[in-house]
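queue> holo job accepted (NAP)
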Amino acid sequence: MAVGRFTKEDDSLNARCERSNEIDEDATSKGQESMKLKGRIAIVTGAGQGIGRGIAEAFAEQGADVVINDLVDDARTKDVQDAIEARGRRAIVVPGDVSKRPDVENLFDEAWNQLGPADILVNNAGIETIVPFTELTDEQWEVVTNTNLKSEWMCAQSFCKRLIAEGRKGAIVNIGSIQAARVLPGRTHYAPSKLAVEALTRNISAEVGSHGIRVNCIHPGLIDTPMIRWVLESPDILPHVVAQISLGRPGLPCEVGAAAAFLASDEAAYITGQSLYVDGGWVGK
Ligand code: NAP
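queue> job finished
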């Protein structure tokens, strides 16, 4: 993995993440009582790779069954499904484009029909493009904002309507970005879509809190995924970015997964409407 290049300490961090993704036989037999998400059903969008996969696996490690959404059902989603089932949890793949209302409704219908009523939604699916402000087209704006923002609104709405109708509690974790607080060039569409996720989180949390539904947001920093591999592989750009991060390294999908598992769990029972930077100390530096 790309982060292994930095220091010996980073190698051990990498190994720790990889170890946490190995099947822990003790946990599957003895440690179940301490699992944060035991018996829960979670839906994770864009879970075929990257941060979504890290969250899906972290949730399975903590006892949750997982609905894996991504654009297509392919070898990547099958791999994630296998990794979850190997932990003794149930997993299904429901492909679909979460920026499209019919696909969103189908995702929740299939989740409810195949696994049962879900307790947790993670709105993770997102895309980033880089286009100078004066060249950005209406279509480019719409594709990014529909995928990163409208999708989170639609999925949250569909999820909450079902929970409220059934009188069930739940938790939503929305994925934003460090770019809610940091300017990077060519992101006049991406950055607003991610800052808006913070306001979406706060406003939904205020409307559904009385129904026992908590809504929080994670703003990831530089996380080692296919989306930003071009940064990790650029000797010109990478040192400048890493120099802005207090911990001096990119993060790992499992580290975002650990934060998401906490926010989705009862350990965070009194936390709602919040945005948490999981960025190794980038925004605060
Ligand atoms: P990634 O490696 O590109 O993975 C995102 C996944 O979402 C891909 O499998 C992608 O499918 C899928 N997806 C894209 N559009 C979708 C849609 N409309 N419906 C369903 N699935 C869709 O990205 P990532 O780095 O894991 O990022 C995950 C989230 O974290 C995104 O919201 C991103 O903006 C945010 N984030 C990432 C970083 C970072 O450093 N990696 C930093 C801040 C925020 P395809 O591969 O088929 O397109």
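queue> The longest helix spans residues 138-166.
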